[in-house]
Amino acid sequence: MYPRPIPETARPARAAYVALVAAVLVLWLLPLVTVMLTSLRSFEEVMAGNYWGWPKSFNFIENYTAVFKQTALARYFVNSLIVTLPSVIGVLVLSTLTGYVLSRHRFPGNRLLFALFVGGNFLPAQIMMIPVRDLMVGLGLYDTYLALIIFHTAFQTGFATLFMRNFIAALPDELFQAARAEGASPWQTLWHVVVPLIRPALAALAILTFTFVWNDYFWAIVLTQSDAVKPVTAGLNNLRGEWVSAWNLVAAATIMVAIPPVAMFFLMQRHFIAGLTMGAVKG
Amino acid sequence: MASVEIHNVEKHYGGFHALKDISLTIDEGEFIVMVGPSGCGKSTLLKTIAGLETVTSGRLRIKGRDVTRLEPGDRGIAMVFQSYALYPHMTVEENMGFGLRMAKRPRAEIDTAVARAAQILRLEEQLRKYPKQLSGGQRQRVAIGRAITRSPDVFLFDEPLSNLDAALRTQMRVELSTLHDRLGSTMIYVTHDQVEAMTMASRIVVLNGGRIEQVGAPLELYANPINLFVAGFLGAPRMNFVAGRVTSTNGGSASVTCGGDLKVDFDDLAETPAVGAAVTIGIRPEKLRIGDPDAGTSFPARVRLTEYLGRETIVYADAGDLATSGSDSGTGVFTIQIGDIQPFAPDAPVSVGFDANAAYLFAPDGRTLSAAKPVTQI
């Protein structure tokens, strides 16, 4: 089966392999490196058409401070946090509850309900665009933080429920029986037994949800209009001028916007990997 | 007062009839061991008593209180699981105090109960450790300690020793028996290990196919199994069973002829079979003797294999047309247990003998027909 190791003796094959990996890596990282380099160039240099070459001057401080001084990026950042954090918390709480009930309580319609949660993930966002927008307008929530928070919480809970249900289902049955035999109520079992044991799953889910919600562009432009509410992803688009765009500043802003999910990943990497790979909790 | 009363309990899982009309009364302070082959319903019955499974019909009482519809936590029981089921994120102390914490008991009461359980189980040094830092035996003691802290009316054990290695199992067996003497509580213990059943039980309950086959003191069950199933289930090595036919009867006596022209005469039968009935003769391996001229009944055989266990020797002997059924070895050979070390050459011809009144006679439907044997005879 693949991948088969290339033997040490097959020198040409090894060389070709290394070269190919390098080529793919460069191709993969090129856009990112280009954005990084562009964020360091001066406006004049970009206008002169130096997109791919080495920057003539490095304007790190100028560009990155200009992004915050000349644009509403700081506002967008705050908006993104106000939308993302409650969404992540909402998703974690709801999916822990649904996952616990769907994995540990037998009741008629359990499977159907679970199927609905999973199936919901397959709905293309585009077909929900108009109904969701109309719904938010009808609720008087259009162009508010709440519109995005409610939508993201609802939409992400589908996948999160699948994730948590499977994780909790993998915990040993006897732990739950023991808790029940000791007189713990379902809520006490959830709080004292389940939640401490699924911390890695919660961490992994927190990163995933944070990234999904933070990076969302589609719903940001569908459900918000004003700068006071717009998250960074939609805000970035505003940085483009009508006639001329300060691409160096747009690039710097892009880097800034990408930092939080990446930072979050590195901070919780340990839990994240444990959460993705850990099955049962063995005593 | 009866500690646990089970009245006509039935349990169905969909189309599967797991428990069939189970009735049993357990006295205060008894150590009941439920044994039976896999899938016989012993664990289901235990979980039913615990309240982890509901009954389809029937009633359950604990200390005179009807608990049939109560949650496990309200039944006055504590359960010890095969996998220990310790909470991995809690220390030993927290594990043992969990039930009391959930019941919101005062801190001082929890500390006292945990300290007492830790002292009984010699876990004082381990209180601050996590389950993963403990050995298998210590984990099982913590699981038992968790049960003790709740001072239940009834302790329920679900194969608690089967995850331990042999030496530790023997040690824990003794500890559990000692614990039972010390606490004097009612204990119900499920196992598939008949050594545990024989050594620990005040009464054994033998289950098969969701039904209780027989209930009684270990030696009583061993000496007087009610039917072929119990006779075959209790005792290691297994009883030798030989098919035979009743050739003549006279009052309480019957002559049975088996393959290889072996004729066995039974006297004082509890029930006389019909002439021509297809019966089964059972002889415990330790009742078979080799080369004993005083044996009442004997037949020729050849030694197939000899196992030297130090204290005893197990000989597997082939008697040709006289074949056993359902033996440990899975072939038709006889299992003979000898109380000392005797060398036998492979294929050596031997004379295997036994006393007819040490043998059992079973009816075609499996009921025991032979007279009850005094328990001290064993």
From TrEMBL, chain A:
GO terms for cellular component: plasma membrane. The chain crosses the membrane at residues 15-37, 76-100, 112-132, 144-168, 189-214, 246-268. Coiled coil: none annotated. It is a multi-pass membrane protein. Gene3D superfamilies: MetI-like. Pfam families: BPD_transp_1. InterPro entries: MetI-like, MetI-like_sf. Residues 77-268 form the ABC transmembrane type-1 domain. Keywords: Cell inner membrane, Cell membrane, Membrane, Transmembrane, Transmembrane helix, Transport. It is found in: Cell inner membrane; Cell membrane. The complex is composed of two ATP-binding proteins (UgpC), two transmembrane proteins (UgpA and UgpE) and a solute-binding protein (UgpB). Belongs to the binding-protein-dependent transport system permease family. Part of the ABC transporter complex UgpBAEC involved in sn-glycerol-3-phosphate (G3P) import. Probably responsible for the translocation of the substrate across the membrane. This is sn-glycerol-3-phosphate transport system permease protein UgpE. It comes from Pleomorphomonas carboxyditropha.
Automatic annotation (TrEMBL), chain B:
One of its GO terms (molecular function) is ABC-type maltose transporter activity. Belongs to the ABC transporter superfamily. It holds the Pfam family OB_MalK. CDD domains: ABC_MalK_N. Residues 4-234 form the ABC transporter domain. One of its GO terms (cellular component) is maltose transport complex. The keyword Lipid biosynthesis does not apply. Its main location: membrane. NCBIfam families: PRK11650.1 (NF008653). The keyword Cell inner membrane applies. Keywords: ATP-binding, Cell inner membrane, Cell membrane, Membrane, Nucleotide-binding, Transport. This is ABC transporter ATP-binding protein. It comes from the Bacteria. It is a peripheral membrane protein. It is found in: Cell inner membrane. It comes from Pleomorphomonas carboxyditropha. PANTHER family: MALTODEXTRIN IMPORT ATP-BINDING PROTEIN MSMX, MALTOSE_MALTODEXTRIN IMPORT ATP-BINDING PROTEIN MALK.
